[in-house]
Amino acid sequence: MNGKFYPLHTEGPDLIFGFPTIYFGLLSIASILLFLVHKRNGTLPKIGEPYYDVIVLVLGLWCLGGLLIDSFAHIAGAVDDTFFTPWHAMWYSGATAYGAYIFYAILPEEGIGSLIRNPLNALRGVAPEHKPGVYGIILFALSGIGDMIWHETLGVESSLDILLSPTHIGLFLGLLLSVTAPMWSAWANKESGRDGLRSQILIIFGLGAAWAIFLLPFLYANLWFESLEAFCYDGGRGFCWNNDYDFVLMHSMRSLIIQVGLTSAILLLFIRRWTPARGSLVVLLVFPAIGGWFYGEFDNTILFLGIVWAIVVEFMLPVLWKGWKRLFVALVVGSQVVVFMASWWLRPVQLPGGLYWIEGTNLHVLPFGWSIHATIGSIIFCAILGWLASCVVSPPEIPDLDDE
Question: What is the structure's pLDDT at 286?
């Protein structure tokens, strides 16, 4: 974190005034746009109809934008001791619009009375591939109401607390299900994603949005958001914060391994079902780059690193096209560590001293001052973990036993 401070109070309208203005203002704009779509087409798409997934994704991205802004406010300290903040107004207005559209989309032909009398019947009638979006916004709504009560009675969370608050966990899960709704819809369609980038755009936007959300709970286990002093080793020169080399390395490897798991899970979910088209992976990886930019308090270095990594991964795509899925995953997660290490050669903050030094029998090298064994081995180790993850997701087929 860059340690910026943002004041809680400024001259002018207070946060209570800002909430209804932003909340109802955004909903009014959305209502006008949907009214124009309805007037042009005579109706709005129901579940499973053409353009339903497009509207759901747009509303989900609205919610994601609210999450990014609200998370930045919490991380930067620009929050007040109330639920009714401008950041929540942007987030919950998107959720309200999403919920209102889902309510319309599942409305039975008998009308609203039938839905109110038998809501469970309407939910059971939703096709399995569309249930994540429907159930996700219901969970979000319940968690949002709980979050309001939680804030107003127990106060506003800060620091790591925002990741562990029970109502926030419900909000994260509900938003994950909501933004990935188009992906699960496409999963059930055997023709989806087969005609280039355009046919995969809804899929990767939904999965990319989920990646940006997942990045937040693991924010404090990600070296990309820490200063060099937090995980470097300088042999006691006084630059690095900790002189216990084993502790430094354990802390760093925990962070790297967690990011390997997150990257492998999201990447394998995509390539398990679809073959990425040219440009798809760049778009997919830009989402965590933008999310990291917000969570890092608009640190342009994080955004730049994410985009560079996205381009590197895109150049690796021919490996996957040749059918070497496990090697591809290993290269992707390994390259994440390489890009991160290489980035420190371009930053203004550098370890003091030379490029290397001998400590006992170990050769320590820049950019982090780790031993040569750990510097190279961490890349290989993370790549192997990615390879193992791909083996778990796509194991070899079990041979049929002969009937004897």
Answer: 95
Question: Which tokens in the block code for residue 249?
Answer: 């390395």
Q: For residues 237 and 402, what is the distance between their CA atoms, to the nearest angstrom?
A: 67
Residue 378 near residue 335, CB atoms below 8 Å: no
Cβ(295)–Cβ(213) under 8 Å? Answer: no
* Measured distance between the N- and C-terminal CA atoms of the chain, rounded to whole angstroms: 65
Q: What single-letter amino acid sits at 174?
A: G
Q: Which residues of the chain have pLDDT under 70?
A: 1-17, 78-82, 110-111, 113, 115, 156-159, 401-404
Predicted local distance difference test score (pLDDT) of residue 15: 47
Strand partners, 359: 362
Residues with Cβ < 8 Å from 335, sequence gap 6 or more?
A: 309, 312, 313, 316
| Alpha helices (H) along 155-218 | 161-164, 166-179, 181-187, 197-215
pLDDT at 2: 45
Q: What is the pLDDT of residue 363?
A: 95
CA distances from 290 to 2, 160, 314 (A): 17, 21, 17
Q: How far apart are CA 68 and CA 48, in angstroms?
A: 29
Summarize pLDDT for 19-49 with one digit per residue, the tens: 888 888 889 998 998 888 888 888 888 888 8
Other CB atoms closer than 10 Å to residue 21's CB: what's the count? 12
Q: b/e string for 32-69 if b means 16 or more Cβ within 10 A?
A: eebeeeeeeeeebbebeeeebbebbbbbbbbbbbbbbb
SS (H, E, C) 23-41: HHHHHHHHHHHHHHHHHHH
Residue 157: what pLDDT?
Answer: 67
Full-model pTM: 0.86
* Burial zone of 114 (CB within 10 Å; 0-12 exposed, 13-18 middle, 19+ buried): middle
Nearest CA to 319 out of 255, 368, 275, 375 is that of 275
Count CA atoms closer than 13 A to 20's CA, side-chain side. Answer: 4
- The count of other CB atoms within 10 Å of the CB of residue 159 is 10
Dump pLDDT digits (tens) for 283-298: 999 999 999 999 988 9
Phi, psi (degrees; rounded to nearest 5) at 214:
-60, -30
